[in-house]
Amino acid sequence: MAIAVSTTPLNAQQTELKTTELETTEEYLDRGISLSEQDEFEEAIAAYTQAIQLDPTNALAYYNRGLAFYHLRNQTAALEDFTKTIELRPDVAIPYRKRGLISLYLANYDSAIADFGQAATMTPDDPNVHLGKAAAHMLQGDVAEAMTSFDRAIELDSNFAIAYFLRGGAYSELGDRQAALQDYQQAGRLYKKLENTASFERIMAIVRDLAPSCYPNCNQAAHQGSIPTDNELLASAATTPAMENLGDRISFGEKILVAQLTNFAKQAGIRALAAGDFKTAAIKLSAYLQEYPNDPEARIYLNNAKLGNQKSYSMAVSVPVNSLPDNALEILRGVAQAQEEANKNIGVDGIGFKVAIADDNNNPEMTRQLGSVLGENPDILGIIGPFSSDAALVAGETYKKEQLVAISPTSTSVKLSNFSPYFFRTAPNDTVAAEALANYAVKELKVKRAAIFFNSKSGYSQSLQEEFLTAISQRGGSFFTTFDLGDPNFNAAKSLAIAEKNGVEVLMLAPDTPSLDRALEVVAANNQKLPILGGDAILQTKTREVGGENAVGMIVASPWFSTKDAESNFMVQARSLWEAEIGWRTALAYDATQALITAIKNNPSRVGVQQALTQFSFIANGASDNITFLPSGDRLSTVELVQLVSSPQDKYGYNFFPLLESFQD
Predict the structure, then answer these.
(1) Which of 94, 209, 304, 608 is at a distance of 20 to 30 A from 3, taking alpha carbons?
(2) Which CATH code fits 2-224?
(3) Rounded distance, CA 661 to CA 439, Å?
(4) At residue 420, does pLDDT exceed 70?
(5) Is the overall model pTM greater than 0.70, yes or no?
């Protein structure tokens, strides 16, 4: 479920965010508004940025630029601009509502609830803020709290179609079929009045499922009774992934998905590529990459442009471009590097590889539906991804149905072993990491009593905590309890106090990326009192930047580490391409792409790719080691234990380095 938001920019007459600044600032603001109204959002952003440079305290410029970023699906930049707007004008409600919408989109439900709650305090008669709060509670699983806010939204606006629609979903969750049916029918009447055909037809499909006996007269039933009058257009409308144009989330280069990395040269290259002018596209994208070499999206599109209309093989990479942009960019760098190497060594057949990028938002249902869309393109022979274990588990049946091999570089849940004949992965499963960490705890730290911190809403996090519990128990250890990072009432200090009181000797952190902030709260509260172990989601720059001195000494299981083979061909090429640190996600995405390319070369059809990967003799060259797969779809590999140490020459003052001794079984 997502809440769509108007991207119409505000001017000084439409909002309390008035500007009385210099005329030149006004001119840039007016230019930005005019460009936004023409859907020229990249140029509008440039104009708003000029206004901000002239007046860094201009809240209106930040707000309107945030809307432009939102339209371009750059949720991270939009969030930053709405946050800055709030800093400058905390007395105005609308930026809280917009930031709440972004947080809802990014699945940061606690933040969304807080922002919608603040907006509701400031504008209690605005039904939109109550709807947003209800949606956040609903997605968080608190249906009872959601119902309170849905009721309030409908009380304030009896014509609020989307509120009836979403409350119908809440009633369905509660098992009240009749109430759900009534709300869906009312939503259908209102959407019909609004001439919103797509939403009306979707609701009628739901009504037919709920009350099949009324079919084929459901449409007629939805039209009966008096239709409420609409006083104004709805300020926001909710959609599900199925109601989106999912094609907008997929690009071979005809559109920009990574909007936070762009300039006019990149935009010109994309326009040329969309128009079929491959030569101009290659020139423009090459020029852009001279200035911004770290943009893997542009490099992938450049590689596609260089192939032009030549015969080529196609694959897709499914990543959370906007919800987890740093992780997505790491993966895309590995894919781009493998693609570039393959296309430079095409060989006598002259057939290169094109890559489509799909933004799955790390949303399992969206990932599944994107799998169906990608499956409809017969040219696509395989997928790199998805990012999370949860997304892989949901999308797996679709990949199998479409006979699309998926090779994930980052999904590690043990549930994915023997999951599907079309699913493979280049990261070791959680058993390998858990056993290495348990060995270290027992053999090196000489401790056996552990407390485990994990996110119960994450399949990966659950898998790692279960495997660690098993591994430590098998080695004569025990665990006191587990603490749920996903609990809205989680308190790091209180949890540690309980653990210490009960003789806990070591902390095991098993967060996923969305719960990393709470894991770092544990690190801060611990203040180096107890040794800390961690899973691979800990390996983010945020850990070094935020964890700092409190995190020094932490031991983490890494699926790959750059110093393992610093002079390998992969690392030499990576240093020449990217002005960025090379982490495990980049290396294993490179490996996944190498494996898929090798399989395609062996047998260029969907079934052929699957058969090639399952052959006992299959082998591909990886970043450090050869790539082979077990019958389970797992890669035969190990993890490397790394430790956070003080590193004054590092940007953040700290970095991870490998332990010298192996703790693999």
Answers:
(1) 209
(2) 1.25.40.10
(3) 11
(4) yes
(5) no
